[in-house]
Fold:
Amino acid sequence: MNRSILKLLQKKLAASGDYAGAIDGISGPITNAAVESALRGRASSLPDGWAAWPAKRKAVAMLQLLCREGGFDTGPIDGWWGPQTQFAVDSLQTLDATGSAPPPWRDRPAARVNSNGWPPEDEAAMNAFFGPHGLPDGRSPGLTSVECPWTLRLAWNRSATTRRIGCNTKVADSLGRVLTRVWETYGETEIRRLRLDTYGGCYAARRKRGGTSWSTHAWAIALDWDPDNNQLRWGRDRATLARPEYDEWWSIWESEGWLSLGREKNFDWMHVQATAS
Ligand SMILES: [Zn+2]
Structure:
C-alpha cells in the first residue's frame, strides 16, 4: 500500500469521523486505531477472526470495504492485497480524484485489420502459412530473432533480461513494427509502469494449456505479457491488461492483425497471436 493510497484511507476515515490525525499517508498508531474502530462498526461485513489480523491486513480490509461501498467489486473482504483489490482501489482513487468512476471496460474490441493475411487458428492452415509447428523432440519452426526497443524481464526469472524475441520468421517484420510503435507510443517510463517489460515468452513446443490441440506458441506466433497479472482464467475484472491504459497497446497489435484472446474472448489476457480467428 503506497502513500497515496494510505492518504485516501485516512481521508475516508476522517470523513466518517473515525480519524482525526493528519492526512499524511504515514501509518501509525492513530491511523491503526481509526481502522480498528471503523472495522468494528462494520464487523458484520468481515470474516470470523478478523480482529486478530495484523494492522496492515486490517488496513487493506478497510480499503476493500470502502471500495465495495463505492460500488467497486473488490472480491472477498479478506485483507489480502491482490489484483482485484488493486483494481478496485485504483478505481476508488480515480473516483476520489476526479469525481467520477473510470470509464467501463470495453466490451467489444475495435475491428481488427488483418493486413498481414494471417491464417485462421487451424492446424492445417497454420502449418501451410507458417511451416510445421515445433515438437518437443527438437523440431523447430523457422525462427527469426527480433530486437525489442526496450529491455524485457523474463516473467519466469525476473533477474534475467533480454532484448531479443525469437519468433516465427513469417511474423518477424510485423512484430518488429508492433514493438516500435509501442515504444513510440508509450516510452520507457510508461512501459515499465504498465509492466509491458514483463515478458512471458514466445516459442514453446507444447499443446494448449487446458486443451489438446497445439498451442500457437508451438509455431512461435504468440507472445505472453505480464502473466502473473493476467492469468489464464482471469477475465477483464481482474486482468490488468484489460484496463483502459492498455487500449492503445492492443490497438497497435490489432492494426497488424494480431488477435488478443482477452479482447475477443475475455480470458488469457496475457496472450496475443498472429491468427485471423
Ligand atoms: Zn500464450
Observations:
- The chain has a mean pLDDT of 93.
- The chain has eight helices and six strands.
- The two ends are 40 Å apart (CA to CA).
- The chain has two domains: 3-98, 123-273.
